[in-house]
User: Fold Pyrroline-5-carboxylate reductase from Natronorubrum bangense JCM 10635.
Amino acid sequence: MGSALVKGLSKADDYTLTACDLDPDALDSVAEYCSTTTSDPDVAAESDIVIVALKPDIVQHVVGDLDLSADQTLVTLAAGVSTDTLEPHTDATVVRVMPNLAAETGNMAAAVTQHSVNDDVREILDAVGEFVEVDEQQMDIATAVNGSGPAFVFYLLNAMKQAGVEGGLEDDEAKTLAAQTFKGAAETVLQSDQSIDDLIDAVCSPKGTTIEGMDVLWDSDADEAVVDAVSAAERRSKELATESENE
Assistant:
């Protein structure tokens, strides 16, 4: 996730980016997008905004080792780790963000804690996609919807691609058609004033091809499976929160 943000922000031309990691391969993978790469956390900690993209079980320890001042902002991407958990370990303003991998292409969906977000963080998020400000109690479900959501979409997209291949399309043809269809449908939802149900109806002409396919979906448990997947991801985010509080 950290590398996706670095790559996305590098296209904005408004930021001086410093990447810090102990893994030289990780640094090499983002070197062309950064002004500086380093394995020294003190160098990275000189930035006005410090983003920590770490596993939940180590984020407290790393944040505690960073010497940040009250004039700085600490943005955490760690799933399940609350601002309350990190605030005792730093003097910086703590902002919790759950982005997703589409930050790399400028198409990110992110949730951010409304009580602590500031304009500098808003500008960063706006540079790489869309974001919503939510009560921190809603961050677990946001983590499931937009953080884990890309994997669920990839799964569904791959199913459509496979259907195209089984119907006779070449693999790359089916991939392009399926991916562009998801992309176009998502953009339509974002730009339209119509509800999603109304948009479905708009595609379903009577006795046409789409209504035949939708009848299969309506008669299936496909929607329940997606809800269950999101619920499972939300439940795990809450478990991570409990684990981090007990560290």
Remarks:
- The two ends are 23 Å apart (CA to CA).
- The beta strands are 18-20, 36-38, 49-52, 73-76, 93-98, 108-113, 129-134.
- The longest strand covers residues 93-98.
- The mean pLDDT is 95.
